[in-house]
Design a protein that fits this description.
Blueprint lengths: L2 H14 L17 H6 L1 H10 L23 E3 L7 H4 L11 H21 L3 H7 L8 H33 L9 H4 L9 H15 L19 H16 L9 H16 L9 H4 L11 E5 L6 H6 L11 E3 L1 H4 L19 H6 E2 L4 E2 L2 E2 L21 E2 L19 E5 H16 L12 H12 L11 H15 L6 H7 L3 H4 L4 E9 L2 E10 L14 H6 L11
Antiparallel strand pairs: 1-3, 2-8, 4-7, 5-6, 9-10
Helix pairs in contact: 1-5, 3-5, 5-7, 6-7, 7-9, 7-10, 9-10, 10-11, 10-16, 11-16, 16-17, 16-18, 17-18
Length: 553
């Protein structure tokens, strides 16, 4: 093993490391040398942590914020934001704001490959035994052996995770299973999308039974992949693979595999829906919730509040502002009230979005002319709405107060919706297939019941009408969680939905009464080529002809 290779590996991972909390240390000691790496168990554990460093943290996907403004969920307040490239359909081979994730995902894959090579052929076990009395330290040794076996399985799942993110963005990509040192810099040709899906599934199927079911006995390992996380990655991957973008012929077998994969998560019996939708996403609540399958943890901060509090709140920048397009999707639970269009609505509206009249940041939001949150004010919301989901209320930004923002990458609510969609496409909405835990309609109703008992029951009885019901429920239940844009793409709905303008409301006041008038906020453009992101021109050139650009770029 070459000294240069080791130091470069450690330095690269250290440069990628972001602030992590106490649960998982993904930093590396770059002062190690080849000699200390070869003889230190701590380096073994460091390499076992390194492949977690590039995992996507959904709160900083674009413009140091969530990705919602790329879809019809939200409008970014700042006119100089990078999300404008998506809004105008002008992402190209020279400018792709998500390109960093291509590099990060391959860095994660490289780190996993390095670790697997580092412990291969008994080298990992030899390190565990080195300078150790296996009799007096039998308990510690047994624990370390179990950990090493878990971490090897996790490295395989990490590769599956990173490839699942890559193919979501780019379609088929090169499958790399060796480090650059092992392959002597050999260029790897791009694999097809279906081949990548098969690889992801094979990695998970081969290693899932060697993963920990949970880390209840050691919270210092929280943040590592578990059996449930691996199965959730597989379920989402197969759902995407079965969807119209990747399955234009409607191949039944693909939908059946997606349904079974989601059923496998349900059948674990480990997860359940959190009883408080709004509180679940705030602070550290998701860490102890039975709904959480995989969470990306970070140190406490106030970046989300700074970027998304109303401009009238000291320190706030307005940031990502929900659209009327989304607000209008929240169902009525009672008789509409013309004087208050936000009353008698799906309770997930109040849990996710700040509207005119909301109590927020220690005051009542008032957006009519001359009021505190006057929409004519520079950098005020252009839609008449502000983000509430994920944010801690009344955080004192001027005093530097912070809160936890743990990104829920996979949760049980999504799995139930994945299941409902796939089972409907394969078997229809009402039947419970042999060996499956429930019908598609039952799974969807579980999500709606958690949202609020006042929501009407699902009545859709055909595959087509139930498909619409699932799309609606995903839009509301998973709002702002980085699903909407990718859902529209995989459903092949983006050319219709993302070419429509995003709307807001104009708020006027007469006496004590407010009037809300829907108005256009911005036009949007989506081109056929945008169903896949482009590889950067430099990457195409550096590939020596092995990487083929996506069509239209």
């Amino acid at each position: 093993m070459k000294t240069k290779s080791i130091i470069l590996t450690m330095a690269a991972a250290a440069l990628l490391a972001s602030s992590c909390d106490k649960y998982l240390d993904t930093g590396l000691d770059i002062n190690n040398t080849s000699e200390t790496v070869a003889t230190s168990r701590s380096s073994l554990w460091s390499f076992a942590n390194a492949f977690y460093t590039p995992i996507i943290y959904g709160y900083s996907v674009i413009d140091s914020n969530i990705f919602a403004s790329a879809s019809d969920e939200a409008q970014q307040t700042s006119a100089s934001s990078n999300v404008i490239y998506f809004n105008k359909g002008i992402v190209n081979a020279s400018v792709n704001p998500l390109w960093t994730y291509y590099n990060n995902c391959y860095e994660g894959i490289r780190a996993a490959n390095f670790f697997l090579d580092y412990v291969a052929d008994g080298k990992g076990m030899a390190l565990l035994e080195l300078n150790r009395n296996l009799i007096t330290d039998a308990v510690g040794y047994a624990r370390d052996v179990a950990s090493l076996n878990h971490y090897i399985a996790e490295a395989h799942v990490a590769r599956a995770y990173y490839y699942s993110e890559l193919i979501k963005m780019f379609g088929g990509v090169p499958i790399v299973e060796k480090t650059q040192e092992q392959s002597d810099g050999e260029k790897v040709a791009r694999s097809s999308y279906d081949r990548c899906v098969d690889y992801i599934v094979s990695e998970i199927d081969a290693w899932k039974d060697k993963l920990a079911e949970n880390w209840n006995d050691d919270n210092t390992r929280e943040g590592r992949f578990t059996l449930g996380a691996a199965l959730a990655i597989k379920a989402r991957t197969l759902l995407y693979a079965a969807s119209p973008l990747h399955n234009p012929s409607g191949d039944w077998d693909k939908w059946n595999k997606a349904a079974q994969a989601a059923a496998d998560v349900i059948n674990l019996g480990t997860y359940s829906l959190d009883p408080d939708y709004g509180a679940y996403f705030r602070g550290g609540n998701s860490l102890s919730s039975a709904e959480s399958i995989y969470i990306v943890r970070r140190a406490a901060s106030n970046t989300m509040e700074t970027n998304n509090y109303p401009i009238a709140t000291s320190g706030g920048k307005s940031g990502v502002c929900p659209t009327e397009n989304l607000v209008s999707a929240y169902e009525w639970t009672g008789t509409p009230d013309e004087s208050d269009p936000y009353a008698n609505r799906d309770p997930r509206l109040a849990a996710s979005i700040v509207v005119n009249g909301s109590s927020w940041n220690g005051r009542v939001i008032a957006q009519a002319a001359g009021e505190t949150d006057d929409m004519a004010r520079a950098n005020a919301s252009r839609t008449g709405y502000y983000l509430k989901k994920f944010l801690t209320d009344d955080l004192n930004l001027t005093q530097g107060a912070t809160a936890q923002h743990n990104w829920v990458a996979y949760r049980y609510g999504e799995v139930l919706l994945n299941y409902a969609e796939a089972v409907n496409e394969a078997y229809g909405p009402s039947s419970t297939p042999a060996g499956f835990p429930m019908s598609a309609k039952q799974a969807l109703q579980m999500v709606r019941n958690r949202a609020g008992a006042s929501l009407p029951a699902v009545t859709a009885s055909t595959v087509d009408s139930f498909r619409d019901a699932v799309k609606h429920e995903r839009r509301v239940e998973l709002a702002f969680e980085d699903h909407r844009y990718w859902d529209l793409l995989r459903w092949k709905d983006a050319m219709t939905v993302l070419n429509q303008p995003v709307n807001g409301v104009k708020i006027t006041r007469s006496g004590a009464a407010y009037t809300y008038t829907v108005q256009k906020v911005a036009d949007r453009t989506f081109n056929e080529r945008n169903y896949y992101l482009p590889f950067m021109r430099s990457e195409i050139e550096n590939s020596a002809g092995t990487l083929e650009q996506n069509p239209g770029y």
